[in-house]
Amino acid sequence: MSDMPRPGKQTTERAKDFKGTLRQLLSALRQYKLSLIVVMVFAILSTIFNIAGPKILAKATTALATGWIAKLRGIGSIDFAYIGKILLTLLAMYLCSAAFSFIQGWLMTGLSQKVCYDFRRQISEKINRLPLAYFEKRTVGEVLSRITNDVDTLGQSLNQSVTQLITSITTMIGVLIMMLSISPKMTLIALLILPVSLVLVMLVVRFSQKYFKAQQATLGVVNGQVEEVYSGHNVIKAFNREAAVLEDFNAANDKLFESAWKSQFLSGLMQPIMNFVGNLGYVAVAIVGSIFAANGIITIGDIQAFIQYVRNFTQPIQQLAQVSNMLQSMAAAAERVFEFLNEPEEDQLADPARRADPACIDGQVTFDHVRFGYVPEKTIIHDFSCNVQPGQKVAIVGPTGAGKTTMVKLLMRFYDVDSGSITLNGHDIRDFDRSALREGFGMVLQDTWLFKGTIMENIRYGRLDATDEEVIAAAKAANADHFIRTLPGGYQMELNED
């Protein structure tokens, strides 16, 4: 019977700080700087060997065309030995490119998984340092979404975007150099497609960004509702709330569908748009190249190589467009993770100058003019005072919302009072370390929770160093010993949440 108002439906998150999130992410990746440098080197080497291929193949094409024409005229033949050497060289280069690509892919996959591992470890440690208020304001599914979906999205996007970003930029620079070495005029014609491509990419990114952010936010809402329905299935059935629950889920699912559909649709538009623009440039280059070849300005092999480079030049533009979408998704997920990691934590340690010794606690509890509210404008406890002596049994009764559970939460320092004080043997509970304070209480929770393990391990959870005899003694004190011994396996029976 918690006195704190439960949250209702979650609202859509505000616009994300894209640049700020990327700065935070880069800062978190500093420890992997050496691995990232190695990945970049191998990615660049793989791209360089791949870029040089068409230029070398052009020599074989020219030799084949020249030899064929000479053979038709009866003045020569095709030099297959020369062409064979070129093809073997080309094969070796492509094998090197594939090897470097495999190595950098293997390294980048391992790096991205290490990043996910570190983030999950940080989140797991953070959970234990967060105040109870954080979890009472959020659904379990929303928190789990940050640990699972957002971290997975971050890892997958990081794995793909870093490599593609490096190879795309290297390819564009390398291809541009190769194109200029073949024909500056044809290069200028090919570059005319670049402004058009950039404008289209910017437009798609601008419109898709908000939908990617909404998709990540709504996914957390859906996960929260699924978790709540699963956990409270019996309650829902008992009160015939199936229709209402289904209606709420359908509303959230519709929002997720709308944002996911729009983000994926806009992302999918990039490929056909870029293909169309690339084909226009390809046609223009083919026409001009044919004219130059007919006039003897360039060779047939150069035309073949240049056309390949034009294709290779538009491909990294398309990849950069895809990378921009992945970066948007990665930033949306990363910011949700960083928001969680940056949440204010409980002050676990008391002021050393006033720290009290927990050994002095003997059971005297005093509430002195305590005032408290979960939100400042809504006070739940007004000027409450009470003195409980050691060994005295006290029962707190009252209607729902009167503040019974809240008083226990204040005593355990899940929350701190707004005014007044709570003392143990004359010592303010804020002068105790939180862990030391809570060790002095034996708290029976309203909501039971069974961890996966034996009955013995579940009872021992409050004090992990307790012996088997002490666990059995505690069960006897709670009148549970006989019941436990009648179960299959007794104290060694395996339990789970169900």
Gap between N and C termini, in Å?
A: 21 Å
- CATH H-level homologous superfamily name of the largest domain: ABC transporter type 1, transmembrane domain
CATH class of the largest domain: Mainly Alpha
Number of strands: 6
| Helical run tally | 15
Shape: elongated
Spell out the helices and strands N to C. Answer: HHHHHHHHHHEEHEEHEHHHE
The CATH topology of the largest domain: ABC transporter transmembrane region fold
Averaged pLDDT, please?
83
Count of structural domains? 3
CATH architecture of the largest domain: Up-down Bundle
Bin the strand percentage: 5-15%
Structural class: mainly alpha
Protein name: ABC transporter transmembrane region
Subcellular location: Cell membrane
Pfam families: ABC_membrane, ABC_tran
Membrane topology: Multi-pass membrane protein
List the helices and strands and how they pair.
Blueprint: H1 18-28, H2 33-73, H3 80-127, H4 132-136, H5 140-182, H6 184-191, H7 193-231, H8 233-238, H9 242-294, H10 300-341, E1 365-372, E2 381-388, H11 404-411, E3 419-424, E4 427-428, H12 434-439, E5 453-454, H13 455-459, H14 468-477, H15 481-485, E6 494-495
Antiparallel strand pairs: 1-2, 1-3, 3-4, 5-6
InterPro entries: AAA+_ATPase, ABC1_TM_dom, ABC1_TM_sf, ABC_transporter-like_ATP-bd, P-loop_NTPase, Type_1_exporter
Membrane topology: Multi-pass membrane protein
Organism: Faecalibacterium duncaniae (strain DSM 17677 / JCM 31915 / A2-165)
